[in-house]
Amino acid sequence: MPALDITDEQLTAYLQEQLPLAELAAVEKALREHETLRRRAAALALRRDLAYHSVGSIWRSERLSCPERTELGSYLLGTLDEAHVAYVDFHIRTLGCRYCTANLADLSEASRTAKPDAARRRRYFESSAGKLRSRE
After folding, report:
1. Residue ranges per domain, the chain?
2. What does the pLDDT read at residue 118?
3. Do the Cβ atoms of 38 and 31 come closer than 8 Å?
4. Is the model's pTM score more than 0.85?
């Protein structure tokens, strides 16, 4: 990614660690190679730190377009309507939101680890069910 092609929005997203990993690496490489780009990034960081707020910066920092964790869980379960599934797909796959990707991975992992626990509890109960005596 040439340094001249990097926008202020991309630099701001880089500073806030909101870029997809591939783009993050490309911006970081360009920053290492170009002094002018480093100066632009420093100016953007200073402007952000001096409480410069635009609608876009607030939107990104508050993650207003991110689906809630419960929505991501419903996405994994396949219980969302088509339009909502399309939005979550777009948000994660096209925009590459790192927060939602991490949330989705966490929910997916929790789902995988919960299944063996439930099966183990069921087997434990079934193995001891015959040993319980009635108190009648």
Report:
1. 3-61, 69-129
2. 67
3. yes
4. no
